[in-house]
Amino acid sequence: MMKDILEKGFLKLCTAKAMAELYEANFKQVSKYVHATSRGHEAIQIALGLQLLPQDYAFPYYRDDAMLLSFGLEPYDLMLQLLAKKEDPFSGGRTYYSHPSLKDDDKPKIPHQSSATGMQAIPATGVAMGMQYKELQGLDDYSLDSDPVSSSAVDNSLKPITVCSLGDASVTEGEIAEAFQMAALKQMPILYLVQDNGWDISANAAETRAQNAFEYAQGFHGLEAISIDGANFTESYEALEKVIKTIRTERRPFLVHAKVPLLNHHTSGVRMEWYRDDLDEARSRDPYPVIKQQLLDAGFSKSEINDIENSAKAKVQSDFEKALKAEDPKPEDLFTYDFVPTPITEEKGTRAPEGADKVVMVDCALFAVEELMRAHKECLLYGQDVGGRLGGVFREAATLAQKFGDDRVFNTPIQEAFIVGSTVGMSAVGLKPIVEVQFADYIWPGLNQLFTEVSRSCYLSNGKWPVSMILRVPIGAYGSGGPYHSSSVESVITNIRGIKIAYPSNGADLKGLIKAAYHDPNPVVILEHKGLYWSKVPGTQGATSVEPSEDYVLPFGKAWVLQEIWKQDDLETLTIVTYGMGVHWAINASEALEMQDQIEVIDLRTLFPLDEDTVMKSVKKTGKCLVVTEEPSNNSFARALAGKIQEDCFKYLDAPVMTIGSENMPAIPLNSTLEETMIPSTEKVKVKIEALLNY
What we know:
Blueprint: H1 3-25, H2 27-30, H3 42-49, E1 57-59, H4 65-71, H5 75-82, H6 121-136, E2 162-167, H7 174-186, E3 190-196, H8 205-208, H9 213-217, E4 224-229, H10 233-250, E5 254-259, H11 279-283, H12 287-297, H13 302-324, E6 358-359, H14 361-375, E7 379-383, H15 400-404, E8 409-411, H16 416-428, E9 432-436, H17 444-454, H18 457-460, E10 470-475, H19 490-493, E11 500-502, H20 507-519, E12 524-529, E13 545-546, E14 560-563, E15 574-578, H21 581-592, E16 599-603, E17 606-608, H22 612-622, E18 625-632, H23 637-649, E19 658-662, H24 672-678, H25 682-693
Helix pairs in contact: 1-3, 1-4, 1-12, 1-13, 3-4, 3-10, 5-13, 6-7, 6-16, 14-20, 16-17, 21-25
């Protein structure tokens, strides 16, 4: 090994070690916020970090401060996060120590990832999938405007790789299996570095793991794995050098299982002396004396080694004193970077072109995606059964694979978590993924990724890594779908902050919202009612539309006063606020009652952002309000909206704000009579309208 690499590695290791010792010596001062350190893991982390390039992407985990130092970050940078300071370069004081997000030109790119153990594996694999896609599409010249890697940063035209750092305990997570499966199946350029210290928190490997990560990887054909001594810097560096070279040239995945000791507390809040019985054995495998001896063997003198150590300690002390004096965030700093601005703020284009055909709602969506894919090579579509053989179970992707190829429109395994979470990585390399969860009932495995990774990335990275993606979700009861193909889930989704949510009632709105979502740099969930797709449900003919022009966009947060009335002094009037299928029940009920001049119907179109101004203006005019939803109304989005309306419009109301939704039962039954009894209908809405008008 070259002496300069050994010297660099030793300096970084001494720095990381000095930081851990300083934190412990100043425990009361730094323990206000929980932190973990790399003590014992330094050698493998530094051996990796010194070999990554600016075009590479890395997903460190919460014990990887030595890796971050080897990327070129200073102790001061990390200490700003340790102390949750305003100038913390990763998150502005929002998230824990060693939870980096970085977009510097001269360093590997680090998208945001959460503390949730192992969850970074799917976003990291999404980056590798994005790299592969760009190479297949001829986009690997980093020419996309949204790609954070500029061509000037690419060193010697070496192809980029992705690195995902994991603890061995995290490999028991199911989402790790989804990541490994896709990386092996598609042969993606990714390195999974598994640091195995033998512990979860207080549970050890013998209690919780049937095999280590190296053994586990054998079950994924196409994922090559090696096991090394991660406490030996030279061995680690040389092994990783070969692996990284192979990934750069052969574009296939590797797992490196590195055995390391844990020489510090699990975190500052969980002290090792409380439960560890192996500390003497762990200390006998300390990487520090090993690399020190390697320096001596390479010809360094003891005084040179001491000088390196002393300079590291002095730097750490100086940076700590400086960080203590740094400014804390101000209260107003809380309210930044929940979203980044979207360019789509006004309705534009032609909604109903002359001479255009009326098409069903599902075709409006299909044509919107086709137009986007034709115009934007960075746009791709994937999910379950959307590929060429079927084109989606609702034919919502029919012909797209044939038109754009199997690399741009492809099937995934039954992996909702991967489908959702991979968009974090795809977006990070400048792509725009449109993904599908086949039924709303099966979104639950994907919620972990939607909540922990997708929705929080922009906020916790201080605006550096918004996730630009579209998640399409067929939703709602239709044609005796039964308990696993009929659910409404919007109340859960609307409680995830950091995503935008559409729920259109007709094809024109769906097309315009898909187009707006594509150009929005933030994550968007589009809920699409299956019963409106073909207007086969009686009374839903209004879901069909003249297909809007290709340039038609409909901004989020703009409700539609679908049926507008004047202020009536001599008649009772009512506002119905609704969305999706509820729009059709409301319109049909008002027509059946012949009360179109008494009932104002508002189609929300988007549930977040929510057009509160239009809603409140209408309710203040009419004096009464009914919120119509397909969800069971208890603890629902609709009930929360009704409460907000009551709060804002109280002095204008002539009756309580009411809601109507499905019956509050655990699931929608298969039997058609029971289904009909469960969900709202035009008739049920009519009854509720009459009761409210006569209140």
